[in-house]
Amino acid sequence: METDFASFEAKTPADRTVMHVLYGLHTVAWASMGTLAVIALVINYIKRSDEHDPLYVNHHSYMIATFWWTVLWLVVTGPLWVLLIAPGAIAYAIIGLWYLYRCIRGWLRFADNRQPR
Fold this sequence. Notes:
Blueprint: H1 13-27, H2 35-50, H3 54-77, H4 80-83, H5 85-111
Helix pairs in contact: 1-2, 1-5, 2-3, 3-5
């Protein structure tokens, strides 16, 4: 079965704005203790399911993967806080910087109409 690409709607400036807002929410999530990231994650899942443009699908998937990998590493390194505060703080700082790097990198690549990876 062939896909009729003519039936897909063209991307609008509003579509781009939504992606920029989602990247922004993920990027400043640290200021809300992750609440903004969870809100953005839900929107990422909703928007990705309705998306046909591979660029947008990949960016939604990239943000979703970044969120879940961050949660995994926060859980895995959580016990370091029990040992001493310093190892836990160092681990969380590294994870936070990695998350910030992924958000900014993906956002810049989206702004250039490039795939996130």
